[in-house]
Each structure stands twice: as C-alpha cells, then as structure tokens.
Amino acid sequence: MSTPVNIEASPDVLAGLDAWRELPAAQQPTWPDAAALAAAVSTLANYPPLVFAGECDVLKSRLADAALGKAFVLQGGDCAETFASATADNIRDRIKTILQMAAVLTYGASMPVIKVGRIAGQYAKPRSSNDETRDGVTLPAYRGDMVNDFAFTPESRIPDPNRLVRAYNASAATLNLVRAFTTGGFADLRHVHDWNRGFVANSANVRYERLAMDIDKAMKFMAACGADFDALRSVEFFASHEALVLDYERPLTRIDSRTGLPYDVAGHFVWVGERTRDLDGAHIDFVSRIRNPIGVKVSPSADPDYLLRLIDKLDPAREPGRLTFITRMGAGTVREALPSIVEKVSASGAVVTWICDPMHGNGFESPSGYKTRRFDDVVDEVRGFFEVHRALGTVPGGIHIELTGNDVTECLGGSGEIVDADLEKRYETLCDPRLNHQQSLELAFLVAEMLQA
Ligand code: PEP
Ligand code: MN
Q1: What is the number of the ligand closest to the CA of 358?
Q2: What is the pLDDT of residue 5?
C-alpha cells in the first residue's frame, strides 16, 4: 500500500494568502473588538473544511465544459441567506426549485446542467452606503448576518465577529442537508419530473404544457429502453457565495495536501462582486491566490481592457473553467453593452465561462416603495444574452438567479401576475428581491425554449 504524501505549501504561496492585508479592501466591516475578531478567526482556522479541494477541481472541469458549450450552468439562491431562514423546509424548497429548473433546462439544452447554489455561505452583503437613515436616525448599514443584525437598533448594527463563526455553523448545517437531499433519493429525476407536472397542471402555466409533455415522452422512452433510473437518484450539487468578508474567507482557506496549493474551502465556487472587483484591491488579490473556480461580476461599466488585465491576473495559465464572468447588464443595456466586452475577451484567446445574471441590472423602486424587479426584464436580459453570444459565435454558458422556493411576492409579473399592491403580502428578503418558486420554474421553461432555438 502506498503511503499518502502530504505536500506542503511553499513559503511564497503561504505569504501570498495574506498579501491582501496590505491592499485597499472595500466593503469590510469595522470590527470594534480586535480581540473578539482574533478569537473568531482562530476558531474558524481550526474548524474542518466545508468543501474539499477535489470537489472544487471537479466543478472547475464542469465549468470548463460550460465554457466550451458542452454543459450549462444553473446558479441560484438567496440574495442574502439569514441564520433564521436556515431551516429544513427552506433549504428543501430551494433545492427542490433548483432541481426542477435543472430538469427542464437539461431537456432544453440536451446537455448536463451544472447545479450551483448561492447557498451555505451567502451571509455577507456589499452596500451602496455605510449607513442607513430611518426617520432621522442614522445607524451602520446591515451587511449580512455574518456581520451584524438586520434589526434597526444601535446594538444590532454593531459588527460582531462571533457572527463569522455562526455563519460557518449555519453553512455546515445547510450543506449537510443539501448533501443529504441531493444524494439520498430526494433528487430522483422521476420525483422532480412529477413536481414539474404539478407546475404545468396549474392553468396559469398551460403555455409550458407542450414542453412538459415532451419531457414526459423522453422519460417514457428512457424507461422503455431500460435506462437505469436508480443511477439518476443523486445529483452533483455545488455551493457558492460572494467572497466578500475576507476575515471569513481567509481562515477557511487551506492547503490541499495532494498538491500543496491553497483552496477556499468555505465554498466550491466564490465570486467577487461588482463593488469589490478593483484590479489592485484586496479581493482580486485574494482570489488570484486560491485554486477554486472563481467568478467576477461584470456590469456595463467594466472596460474591456480592464477585463483583459483581470484575466491575466486571475487566469494567467488560461485554464478553462478557472474564470467565470457573470455579466449583469440590465435588460435595456445588454444588447449594446455586452458585444464589445465578449468580443474583446474572445479575441484575446482567453476562454472564460459566460454566465448571465439577469437580476442585478434590473432593480428599481416600485411606486409603493419596494425594491423590486420585473419578471419580464429578467427574461429579456437572458434573451439578450443568448442573442449576443449567438451573433458572435461565443457560448452562453449559464444563468445566475436570485430565487427562493417559497411563494414570496418580491418580483413583479410572471404567470401569477404579481402587481405592486401584492409586494407587501410576502416581501421577505432582507436585501434584493428574489423570484419565487413559480417564477423560477417559469423562467426555466422560457430559458429551455431559448436553448432549443
Ligand atoms: C449580488 O450578487 O447579490 C450582488 C450584490 O451583485 P453585484 O455584485 O453584481 O451587484
Ligand atoms: Mn443581490
């Protein structure tokens, strides 16, 4: 029997993991208690990994397939997870929604769908302002449950480093259930298909009946051919979040003993957001040092030359699957703004995975005062994303959606025809508005049609 080798990291690699500390870091909490922060960071540094380096490598190879048009990515989940919402029912319903969407997309794409949750770590939020004022009272902004509490009181809004440890524990519990749901028979394609039949049985969704019937026929065909449905009882499911609070990501970065290379083991895939993607800033430096597949959000303000420099920094080896650009252009802008970006990147020879986030460029405040998005704008941005990539001969690799498995009323429209007056009924998000269960499925049917076109 061969002895397992334990390859250690080189001193340069180890030093590099802390290089971000010397760089400007946007959106970091000001922790008032340095000793409490040190204690929380040391606790995290001693906890076991939430994911394994080998799983991150598998996801990287799957994302490489998506970059080349051999797979399609479905990334979805809450804008901001909360400790209170990490319940069995909520987690189950989110997984169920993603599995239902994935089944429809798999049929539409005739390709494997890579399932990635915005889950088990999405506990920190970038904010446009450091403060929030209500009725003349100004307090620090809510930065996600990993940092402070949403309640509008001075005590609640003080950044508390113990929350970093709570975020780890909530993520561990969530991931444990995710792994059980996706491997324990719940994900059986036959159940998922039955749930989807329930969706089209609702008269509001008859428009999707034909596609559902086609899937039904395909399932019967598979059964008649003797397909091993038992092998389809489990699915691969990956966890992702925005790598925002570096005092959480850094202690959860570990050296892979197989290779001596560092991985952020807080999630399989992490991304850098629109507000923290400064080329010379802490976040880009940090993710440049880890070996996970990584993403960067890209808005119309991203200059193509900046993106080329970003590619040099984050993917110097030009490794397909390493780097994903998550474009969030806005429905009204995608058709003008995306082509020059995609053209310049592909002309450089770099292979990135292009994913469409049709949520973050489409927010607005409704007349009744809720932060919302229109379902039709979400659909239209995905449509524009497909049009642009098809015109350029590049690959539309996936979608990135803020969604929940619950029947919330946060986004307008969809076959349930949610209107402004409905928003107050079940507006539950603490940050951005999410598609509800119905709207998510409807989007999946529409994207499946786009994939078939
Ligand atoms: C998000 O994904 O919740 C987010 C804040 O997005 P962006 O960085 O694109 O604004
Ligand atoms: Mn969001």
Answers
A1: 1
A2: 81
d(CA 295, CA 272): 6
Q: For residues 413 and 446, give the distance between their C-alpha atoms in angstroms, rounded to a whole number.
A: 14
**What local confidence, expressed as pLDDT, does residue 429 receive?**
97
Q: Which residues pair with 253 in a beta bridge?
A: 264
Q: Whose CA is nearest to atom 8 of ligand 1?
A: 273
Map out the domains of the chain as residue ranges: 22-130+161-187+234-452
Scan for tokens 């048009």, then name that residue. Answer: 69
Q: How much is the pLDDT for 1?
A: 55
**Reported pTM:** 0.98
Would the CB of 274 count as within 6 Å of ligand 1?
Answer: yes
291 lines ligand 1 (CB under 6 A): no
Q: Which stretch of 230-234, 371-375, 389-393 has the lowest confidence by average pLDDT?
A: 230-234
Residue 72 bridge partners (DSSP): 113
H or E segment to which residue 427 belongs = none
**Domain topology for 22-130+161-187+234-452:** TIM Barrel (3.20.20)
Residue 229, pLDDT above cutoff 90:
no
Which one, of 354, 165, 162, 179, lies nearest residue 266 by Cα? 165
Task: List pLDDT tens digits, range 432-443.
Answer: 999 999 999 999
Q: What are the residues whose beta carbons fall under 8 Å from the beta carbon of 349, sequence distance 6 or more?
A: 318
CA distances from 405 to 14, 98, 408 (A): 41, 8, 9
Per-residue pLDDT tens digits for 1-32: 566 789 999 999 999 999 999 999 999 999 99
Q: Is the Cβ atom of 277 under 6 angstroms away from ligand 1?
A: no
- Specify whether the CB–CB gap between 199 and 439 falls below 8 A: no
**Which ligand is in closest contact with the Cα of 356?**
1
CB count within 10 Å of CB 422 equals: 16
* Residue 276: Cβ-neighbour burial (10 angstroms; 0-12, 13-18, 19+): buried
**DSSP of 212-243:** HHHHHHHHHHHHHTT--GGGGS---EEEEEE-
Residues 6+ apart with CB under 8 A from 185: 233, 234
Cα 364 to averaged position of ligand 2 atoms, centre (Å): 13
Say which ligand is closest to the CA of 297.
1
- Measure 80 CA to ligand 2 centroid, in angstroms: 7
In terms of Cα–Cα distance, which of 404, 402, 441, 173 is closest to 297? 402
In this structure, how many other beta carbons lie within 10 angstroms of the beta carbon of residue 223?
Answer: 11
Centre of ligand 1 from the C-alpha of residue 424, in Å: 23
Residue nearest ligand 1's atom 9 by CA? 274
